[in-house]
Amino acid sequence: LATVCLLLPIALAPIDQATVVAIISVIPGIWVLGWCTTLILEAAEGQSRELASLVRRDPLTGVGNRRLLDETLATELPRHAEAGEPLSVFALDLNGFKELNDGVGHDAGDALLVAVASALSSVARDCDVVVRQGGDEFCLLFPRTGATSADGLRDLIAASLDASRAGSP
User: What does the DSSP assignment read for 10-71?
Assistant: First the structure.
């Protein structure tokens, strides 16, 4: 657009040769400036998307955090109510976690949290949401999942957690 605006006087009115050369010599600079601006904007948008993703992820486990849970529930509950679709929600609390942290150390507690998050994520489908609400609490949302399917998922979760426990020292 800037190129057209610069060339417009040349096309519409007689202009001396020095002005024509000056106008034409500015055009490559404008193109480079436009290209650089586009690159910067694309990089900023990419960083913005990455930051938006990071603020919804638990840094230790990589699963969602409380913010993701709140946002997802705010959209999913009305949507499922309106469509009449089921939504299953599982909440898990790791019994004895504080004692593990106090007795064995926080590194062991962190390793347990990562293992549990991995086990839960291995069961989750693409449409499901796994979050660590904080501390030793996890929550799973299973959209369009009724009681019968939820029972099967509960069994898969238990088996995945058992397998994770069996594989730990």
Answer: HHHS---HHHHHHHHHHHHHHHHHHHHHHHHHHHHHHHHHHHHHHTTB-TTT-SB-HHHHHH
Residue in 70, 136, 151, 162 annotated catalytic = 136
Please name which of 49, 70, 50, 52 lies closest in space to residue 131, comparing C-alpha atoms: 70
Q: Rounded to whole angstroms, how far apart are CA atoms 124 and 132?
A: 14
CA atoms within 13 A on the CB side of 98: 2
pTM summary value: 0.69
From the list 104, 88, 90, the residue with the least C-alpha distance to 168 is 104
Q: For this structure, is 136 an active site residue?
A: yes
Rounded to whole angstroms, how far apart are CA atoms 104 and 91?
Answer: 25
Tens-place pLDDT, residues 48-106: 888 877 789 999 999 999 999 999 999 999 999 999 999 999 999 998 888 988 898 88
